[in-house]
Design goal:
mainly alpha; 5 helices
């Protein structure tokens, strides 16, 4: 069933739970396999999960980590991606870096309009 909010939910696994540690390692392996040439450090928010799994926000580091896969090899699209990421961050935070987040949904809509 599409968009079923009942299908969301956190795992409630604690930070020392071996199941969580295995899940994070699996996500790291999947990211490395999907983008083996990416030398950037993997941001923590790409390998952990939000409480509901529905949060549309990622850190600016997570947005930039995915840049090559999302926009490559089109340099213009990369520029729009970075510019839109910055706009989404500024719009949400008023320039404060304390809780910098990029709204991925709004970013993707900006990229669609730019195409």
């Amino acid at each position: 069933m599409p968009n079923n909010g009942l299908a969301s939910g956190g795992s409630n696994l604690g930070p020392t739970n071996p199941a969580l540690i295995d899940a994070v390692r699996g996500r790291i392996d999947a990211l490395k396999a999907a983008d083996p040439d990416n030398a950037l450090p993997i941001p923590v928010d790409l390998v952990t999960a939000s409480a509901s799994g529905l949060d549309p926000h990622v850190s600016p580091a997570a947005a930039l980590y995915q840049l090559e896969r999302v926009a490559a090899p089109d340099i213009w699209t990369q520029a729009v991606y970075v510019s839109s990421s910055w706009t989404m961050w500024k719009r949400r935070n008023g320039g404060s870096s304390a809780k910098a987040r990029v709204n991925v949904l709004l970013l993707n809509l900006d990229l669609d309009r730019a195409q």
